[in-house]
Amino acid sequence: MATTKCPYCWTSHRRNQLHMRCGESCEHRGTPFPERELKNERCPHGRLPQSRRVCPSCGRDLLREYVDGGGRNIAVIGSADSGKSTWVGVLVHEFQRGQVSERFAGMSLDLLGEESRTRYHRDFDTPLFEERRPLRQTASARVKAPEPLMFSLRFRRTGMFGATHVAPVVTVFYDTAGEDVARADAMDQLISYLDAAEGIILLLDPLQMAKVREHVGSNGARSGYTEQLHVLNRLSELLRERGGTKAGRRLRTPLAIALTKFDLLSDMFPEESPLHQPSGHVGVYDEADGLDVHEEVRAWLNQWYDPAFDRSIANAFETYRYFGMSALGAPPVDGNHLAPQGVHPYRLEDPMLWLLARFGAIRMTKGKR
């Protein structure tokens, strides 16, 4: 029987283990009860129940589309200045009404639930696209539990005999505080949701690499460095311990490693680099383009950061892919103002498209190399 992972407490439950609530006409309205206690579509007190399911562990309501659609949990991690919140905020915009929506005809993105809609408008859309200012840093999980941002990606598909249907992919994103990634004790608190993730996106801040900062300057980065290799090692340790993966086996969770702030690094890549070409993912995920970028970023990290980073990933994760991108297109003027041209992302959707292709939501093509 299919299971559902609660997007709030990350526990797994079979469908018949989920709870429901007594409806408005019941004197016990709002009281949860196991779904298996339904009789003739009535609650144990003989009244119509509320339609929404409830997690039996934490008591939070579960959206029907999330339960029915088998939501995909995706974790986004990275050090403090890697731009995780910015990436998520711009990604949703691009899938809703930006360049990605133009390249994937018939695709739509809908935020699910009032909490996600309110949070996205308040914390992402308004500051980035209306006020044109950088986002505030994410609160630590030691202070505030990460709240998921849920949305449904819908893809229009045509069947063998011309019939059209819509295939939804419900996605749950978590944004973590950079300080939590850097601190072992805080990261322990995040392992439950990292373990529940079906895909992990690790954002690498190039300004946390000494040789890169010497080349391009600090660009407002705080003093000191967060060692990216240590973050990776801690992540793999925790996933291995929680999942019981033996030391001789690699982790099976797909890992996308995205080098951010490409706008600062452009001249560090050769003119013929695939990263200087627009994304080739039009209606499908172009695997040839993805592999070209993967090899380019791998070579760059070996030269400008540390060859040990790639060796550690290859030995820890069964499936991984490198990406290069820019969420804003240009560095902010200061802590209160984006660049005058506003938000102009470059290839920021590539990690998400790769995961969607691995989930089977979009087609992957080998293309031409």
Automatic annotation (TrEMBL):
All copies of domain Double-GTPase, residue ranges: 74-266
Coiled coil start-end: none
Superkingdom in the source lineage: Bacteria
Pfam families (UniProt xref): DO-GTPase2 (PF19993)
Name of the protein in question: Double-GTPase 2 domain-containing protein
Source organism of this protein record: Actinophytocola oryzae
